[in-house]
Amino acid sequence: MRQLEQTNKDLLAMTRARAIMTSVVLIMSLLVTYNVWRGARQSAIDNLQSNFEFRTSELNDRIRQRLTVYEQVLSSGVGLFHASEEVSRDEFRRFFEALRLGERFPGIHGVGYATIVAPDALDRHVRAVRAEGFPDYTVFPPGPRPVYTSVVYLEPFTGSNLRAFGFDMYSEPIRRAAMDQARDSARAAISGKVTLVQESGNDVQPGFLMYEPVYRDGGASQTIADRRRSIVGWVYAPFRMVDFMDGLEGPHPPALDIEIFDGETIERSALLFDAEKSGVAIEAPTPLKRISRVEAANRIWTVVATARPEFEAGSLTDRPQLLLQSGIAISLLLTLLIWLFLDDRARALHAARQAMQLALYDPLTGLPNRKLLDERLTQALVKQKRSSGHLALLFIDLDKFKPVNDNFGHAYGDLLLKEVAHRLLACVRESDTASRLGGDEFVALLADVEGPHGVAVVADKVLRQLNAPYEISGQVFEISASIGAALYPEHGTDAKSLVRSADLAMYAAKDAGRANVQFAPLPSRRAAPDLKSS
């Protein structure tokens, strides 16, 4: 009995431990998986951010490099004018052809030279240029001004560049500001946002110009006043912004939305370049965005770079997702293995419990069997001997049970025995033991009774319950019980003698006509009270 109770405790503890352990393993493994995924995800985001920063920095560097290269081109043009007392139109054309700008310097619209014309020399200047074979040449826009400039050389001298021939750039405030800055600093200067005179009205792009000053006598003095007195003109280059940006993102597909603003403020009026308007569709916004400043040739541009969705899709790897999926799968597999391992042990304990259950309990009624009854009776006798108390045994044999089996089959007989067991349990206390010895024999162990009268009360209650009709699957059966009662210590001082006394009393009940209770005779042979049921 103790072994069975311990097995039950072990089985309950194992069940709880299995649930706790598998839950802990699952939670811990999922937590580890989450941390690994989060680390991999953060690493991927960091790599994405780093890649984005690199791409934007690379783009800004390419913008600076391209502007620096064009500045060097203009400086070489200035060198041409410094190397010659007077540069002819043909010399300028050959200089331009030697540069091979179309091959080496994409984005540049041309290279020109604007000369300064004093108001009193304007007519003479116009006649001289017309004499070169340009009868329609004039300086424009018309109108009196303190000083004039004119684009006299511009290569390639074809197509839309012809529209700039004779244009006084100094008459327009934005261009004049850049020309003055180049003159006073003796360095290249970039203009603000303009619309080039080369534009024809189709595919108009924002533009800018770069100027490099040309001084008299081939050099620039140290003071601004001297530079203003010795300036004779500017070598310059016009740029259309979209053409200028062409190819700057390198061989990769465009993955960044680039916006470039003239100056340090982000305003639509200062927008020089917008990738979206170049025919590239911008989809959902992205948090990857960088605002940077590019400074070149005395000008600052604000570059706003935003990652396109395809940039993130191309830069992020599937590694975090694979780690997450693999981690979850491993976690579930590990949990399943532990569950199966513990379940095998629980099954073993459950099997052991069932083996003990079969050894100690009646498989039909679930009542304790003879072995467990003997164990409990022995324990009860030890207790009563210490306390000088009483206990009793009721030996019960069913009357008229055999005809039920014979006439209706064992199925009905088994159901009837189960109902007998149920009624017997209802008549005794939890501290008592109702058991089945086998067949139609039952024994009730009554602990801590108050002498023969107390036993007689319980026995009579059991008799009345067992003698009542039984309705089993639509059939009504009327059987009865013969009960023999033995009291400790009056009818026996050990288990063997007590059981024998109760058994003899049960046979006495059958001899007395059945359906009654008989007490075992006392050792003095005095007759026990007759409790035959009416």
Question: What is the string of helix and strand elements?
Answer: HHHEHEHEEHEHEEEEHHHEHHEEHEEEHE
Task: Describe the sheet with the most strands.
Answer: 5 strands, antiparallel
Shape: rod-shaped
Distance, first to last CA: 39 Å
* Number of E strands: 16
Number of domains: 3
Looking at the chains present, what oligomeric state does this protein adopt?
A: single chain
Estimate the helix proportion, in percent: 40-55%
CATH class of the largest domain: Alpha Beta
Indicate the CATH topology of the largest domain. Beta-Lactamase
* Assigned CATH architecture of the largest domain: 2-Layer Sandwich
Q: Round the mean pLDDT to the nearest integer and report it.
A: 86
Low-confidence stretches: 278-284, 525-534
Q: Tell me the fraction of residues in β-strands, as a range.
A: 15-25%
Can you summarize this structure?
By secondary structure, this protein is of the alpha+beta class. It has 3 domains: 2-59 and 316-360; 72-311, CHASE domain (Beta-Lactamase, 2-Layer Sandwich), CATH 3.30.450; 370-519, Alpha-Beta Plaits (2-Layer Sandwich).
